[in-house]
Specification:
Structural class: alpha+beta
Helix content: 25-40%
Shape: globular
Number of helices: 15
CATH class of the largest domain: Alpha Beta
CATH topology of the largest domain: Uridine Diphospho-n-acetylenolpyruvylglucosamine Reductase, domain 3
């Protein structure tokens, strides 16, 4: 690390916020993937002005800069794959303003996702996007990856609740994009361009988020099935009946047993699948829709269907679903969580295909996910320390993605491409489209210093 460069960083953020020792940098070389990339220096920032000065300095020295929030990402988006600066933004965690009339909250990028809803619950409002990591993930990271969550079917994903953002461009300028009006069609929709750009086009420092009133009533339903196919058919038929549930989650037998081993809450280990469903809205409508949901479950050969009788029971059910990944990660040394997404009408085919691929390769795969919006998380349980298992895992992943694309789906519904899926990008993105993406990147970041090495397609080979 250039001493002059380090000294200039220390002038911007104070010496205690510049980390150069190997041991401390090692802490920032990981995220929630199985990968490791060591940054040359870690810089903790608190303001957009500090980030602006750092980016101007980085352009002068042509040093890579990788923004980093809570590092809960599952595609390697916050890893410094080309070294340089790891820009840690978790201290930018202020909730700046809450506007209950316009249903808006303005927050810094480092605010924890769940804390937004906690801050407005006394006003009977909530922030709908709810990624599985909502207790630890940050708003900036959610915007960078366009995070989804359990409520995606009815309420949409992060991009649907971003009105305006403050962004530091790769060249150091601080700009504001978007507007806080309900309608706006002035110029290009740059907010949506930034949302899901995985930290490659700009560093989001502040955002104004949309809020909604808390529904007056809700009902949670648990249904068990003999197999995943029956459960997946039920998902399709619920939507076909005109019921748009708040959440509609599917969990397979492998995952059910993992959750029960972990939480010991009395889940039935003998079943092949379960659905966790929640409807919300006005009281009378919720009762009607809950009745329709249970009727559809029974018509699809559900082994049992029950509605939570108390808030405590309801919370226990959803705690079980949110514990799916952590429960599965206890089974084998390596846990590879994928993010295959298809149109709802093809969910049955995807479920069956994943099961066939697991049998073909003799691999243990626990499947769960947001079945209501076609987003499944096939989770491969293996040991990547064994070369044969590692090679087999790569074949399994590639087959899952090929099936997903063949079914009209996409490589990622909510986790992003980053570095973990870059090698498969060619399956979905044509070369002309990829070349257009590169031109956009170059116009924002002519020196290619902001989060380089991400979404790098094999078209470049």
């Amino acid at each position: 690390m250039d001493k002059n460069y380090t000294a200039e960083l220390e002038q911007i953020v104070n010496p205690e916020n510049v980390i150069t020792s190997f041991e401390e940098r090692l802490t920032y070389s990981y995220d929630s993937t199985r990968l490791e990339y060591m940054p040359d220096v870690v810089v903790k920032v608190k303001t957009a002005e500090q980030i602006s000065r750092i980016m101007k300095l980085a352009n002068e020295y042509t040093i890579p800069v990788t923004p980093r929030g809570a590092a809960t990402g599952l595609s390697g988006g916050c890893l410094a794959v080309e070294g340089g600066i790891s820009l840690v933004m978790v201290a930018m965690n202020k909730i700046i303003d809450i506007n209950p009339i316009d249903l808006l909250a303005t927050v810094e990028a480092g605010v924890i996702t769940e804390n937004v809803s906690k801050a407005v619950e006394h006003l009977k409002l909530f922030y709908p996007p709810d990624p599985g990591s909502m207790k630890s993930s940050t708003i900036g990271g959610n915007i960078a990856e366009n995070a989804g969550g359990l409520r995606g079917l009815k309420y949409g994903v992060t991009k649907d609740y971003i009105n305006s953002i403050e962004v530091v461009l790769p060249t150091g300028e601080i700009v504001n994009m978007g507007t806080n009006t309900v309608k706006a069609v002035t110029g290009y929709n740059l907010v949506d361009l930034m949302c899901g750009s995985e930290g490659t086009l700009g560093i989001i420092t502040k955002a104004t988020l949309g809020l909604l009133p808390v529904p007056a009533d809700r009902a949670s339903i648990l249904a068990f099935f003999k197999n995943m196919t029956d459960a997946a058919k039920t998902v399709r038929d619920i939507v076909a009946e005109g019921v748009i549930t708040a959440t509609l989650e599917i969990v397979d037998k492998v995952t059910i047993n993992a959750i029960e081993d972990f939480l010991k809450i009395g889940l039935d280990r003998t079943v092949g699948a379960m659905l966790l469903i929640e409807v919300d809205g006005q009281k009378g409508a919720v009762e009607i829709e809950a009745g329709i949901v249970m009727k559809v479950c029974r018509s699809n050969s559900a082994l049992s269907v029950r509605q939570a009788k108390s808030a405590q029971e309801r919370d226990e059910l959803w705690s079980a679903r949110r514990a799916a990944l952590s429960s599965l990660s206890r089974i084998r040394p390596s846990t590879i969580l994928e993010d295959a997404t298809v149109p709802r009408s093809r969910i049955v085919e995807l479920v069956e295909a994943v099961n066939e691929i697991a049998k073909k390769y003799g691999m243990l795969i626990g499947t769960f996910g947001h079945a209501g919006d076609g987003n499944l998380h096939p989770t491969i349980l293996t040991d990547l320390r064994i070369p044969e298992q590692s090679k087999k895992t790569e074949r399994v992943i590639e087959e899952i993605f090929k099936v997903t694309i063949a079914l009209g789906g996409t490589l990622s519904g909510e986790h992003g491409i980053g570095i973990t899926k870059a090698q498969y990008l060619k399956l979905e993105i044509s070369k002309p489209v990829y070349d257009l993406m590169k031109k956009i990147k170059n116009s924002f970041d002519p020196n290619n210093i902001l989060n380089p090495g991400k979404m790098k397609c094999t078209w470049d080979a």
